[in-house]
Amino acid sequence: MKTATTEDCPCGGGQAFGGCCRPYLVGEATAETAEQLMRSRYSAYHQGNIDYLIATHHPTQRYAGQRAAILQSTARTTWLGLRVLATEAGQAADSQGLVEFVAYYKDPTLGQVHERSRFTRQKGRWLYVDGDGLPPLWPRRSDPCWCGSGKKYKACHGQ
Ligand SMILES: [Zn+2]
Ligand SMILES: [Zn+2]
Predict the structure, then answer these.
(1) Could you tell me whether strands 96-106 and 110-122 are parallel, antiparallel, or unpaired per DSSP bridges?
(2) What range does the domain containing 136 cover?
(3) pLDDT tens for residues 11-29?
(4) pTM above 0.70?
């Protein structure tokens, strides 16, 4: 793992990695909500945990060459931050859920994934099904940078 258990979780949830996404990534716990699964999948991209990404992708949506495609993208992409913008259902008692998020990255130019993702729960496990891409959302220049540095966007990744 790239991130130590005591460091901030890459998903930006405000907790240490060891008390947030790590237990899901190492199989010690299963996500109870669609948002937890979404956050853990972001952290898996951040850590390059391809097995977890495939295991939490709905079997009907997996495709040939997926492992190589993820490997190639994680090799050149630095994930900078995640913001969960909205959720619909996806709670412990639900079997379907939606999570809208924006995830920022550098590869080496700045980019983002702004998506409304669909999740379903099968045999007690949340799975990512697919998502609708949404128009980009960039911070204003005087907003805090979404990488969590504490600097303004214009003084950090917005330069
Ligand atoms: Zn987390
Ligand atoms: Zn920044």
Answers:
(1) antiparallel
(2) 17-155
(3) 999 999 999 999 999 999 9
(4) yes
